[in-house]
Amino acid sequence: MTRTGTSTVEAVYEEVVRRNPAEREFHQAVREVLDSLGPVLERHPEHAELKTVQRLCEPERQVVFRVVWQDDRGEVQVNRGFRVEFNSALGPYKGGLRFHPSVYLGIVKFLGFEQVFKNALTGMPIGGGKGGSDFDPKGRSEAEVMRFCQAFMTELYRHLGEHTDVPAGDTGVGAREIGYLFGQYKRITNRYESGVLTGKGVSWGGARVRTEATGYGAAFFASEMLAARGTSLEGRRVVVSGSGNVALYAVQKATQLGATVVACSDSGGYVVDESGLDLEVLQRVKEVERGRLTDYAERVRSARHVVGGSVWDVPCEVAIPSATQNELDEAAAARLVRNGCVAVSEGANMPSTPGALEVFRAAGTAFGPGKAANAGGVATSALEMQQNASRDSWTFEHTEARLEQIMKDVHARCAEAAEEYGSPGDLVVGANVAGFLRVADAMRAHGLV
Ligand code: NDP
After folding, report:
1. Each residue of 332-363: pLDDT tens digit?
2. Is 435's pLDDT higher than 90?
3. Ligand 1 centre from 1 Cα, in Å?
């Protein structure tokens, strides 16, 4: 990195840390992007002058609100809600809602920041945002989840709109929660504004393949990285972490592409099945019964459940981390490399720590960062918005073909930018540079706003 580029990004980073104290995940996400931008600022000094990077690191709007609701015993519960509207240079704010007890402003900001670059990489007209709550849906009844969603939307609705801010699901928010959120939005506004939320049920405005899109996209991205190295997923041994929305469909698509997925996990442990996970049972346990992996292991005789531990202990050639941020650390990365892992496609957001990233770089492992590899979810959300705007409904096959092409294009954009800016093959640099340039150009066109 040249001196001017280096000193600019270092100064920006110091400022971000000072202005956003104790937001560790946000700092980490910013650091990772800034590390790629030195050469870009050298070639585009106008962005240093316009303080484009500083402006990109400051969300356009941050909303933090109280959510009060009553549980089934009549006890009053107080949660905190968030929506960070990060950047609208390319379109309405777009990004999911996460319901998990770990959610605080620093998590929402890291996710929103990543989202800006990811959405830019899809090539679609969407800005970046993210939101959520520290509400824990685990163990809550259906009625409690509904009351919480209604209370949450009663505040959030005033910030949303199909041309303003369009949330979707994320951890803890699936089709059920999107349904309750949409119902409350409709009740308050008296508008059937389909394009205000994505991830809707297919019978009432949702897009086919949206449920599958993030996981499918991560598997397609893995396949694309391998193709660039003259090989494929066919016959590969794959490990996927997590067993939620992203993980389930990464397992499905990797299997359809000829791989054998031998393990997946949840926060209690992991299951290994050398003959390949039984997706039908897995889906029934996780999606229908909302059960645990222990339930899966009880039903599938060839499966072995390991309590605690790390799923990355299971040897594989391709890893698709699809659980949560910082779930794959330096030691786990070293184990993966030692065991013959040749490609990592991040289904989750920032699952690999900076130390893990260094291990993969040093080993020459093909590495698809989340902002590229998991962009299929938001891209299909944008396709849902298109269908809502034209009151249309596409077939599964057509939508999946669009998704596959989008993932190929995202990969190509990253590879080209990496090459052009002096880091051939480094898709982390490529994703950051390509995402930055698209957003930065639009910001420049819009003037100092
Ligand atoms: P889900 O809530 O459907 O599933 C999350 C899964 O990860 C669960 O199996 C959960 O286990 C596991 N998990 C969560 N925290 C931990 C932890 N600390 N250790 C081990 N396992 C854990 O979420 P999604 O599948 O929707 O999201 C997963 C990741 O993908 C997140 O990083 C999200 O931001 C990202 N993502 C999601 C998109 C989407 O369309 N849904 C789009 C792009 C990215 P348990 O049930 O035990 O908690």
Report:
1. 999 999 999 999 999 999 999 999 999 999 99
2. yes
3. 35
Domain coordinates of the chain in residue numbers?
Answer: 3-57, 61-191, 213-373
**Does the C-beta of 324 come closer than 6 Å to ligand 1?**
yes
Whole-angstrom distance, CA of residue 362 vs CA of residue 384: 39
pTM of whole model > 0.85? yes
- Residues 322 and 117: their CA atoms lie apart, in Å, by 19
The atom of ligand 1 lying closest to the CA of 350 is 32
Nearest protein Cα to ligand 1, atom 41: 170
**Residue 3, pLDDT score:** 52
CATH topology of domain 213-373: Rossmann fold (3.40.50)
Residue nearest to atom 24 of ligand 1 (CA): 171
**Which class is domain 61-191?**
alpha beta
Answer whether 169 contacts ligand 1 (Cβ < 6 A): yes
Q: Is 214 in the pocket of ligand 1 (CB under 6 A)?
A: yes
Quick one: which H or E segment has residue 366?
Answer: strand 366-368
* Cα separations in angstroms, 177 against 211, 302, 323, 350, 439: 13, 34, 19, 24, 31
39-52 burial, b if ≥16 CB within 10 A, otherwise e? bbbbebeebbebeb
CA-nearest residue, atom 7 of ligand 1:
323
Residue-level pLDDT at 1: 44
Tokens 């319901």: give the residue: 99
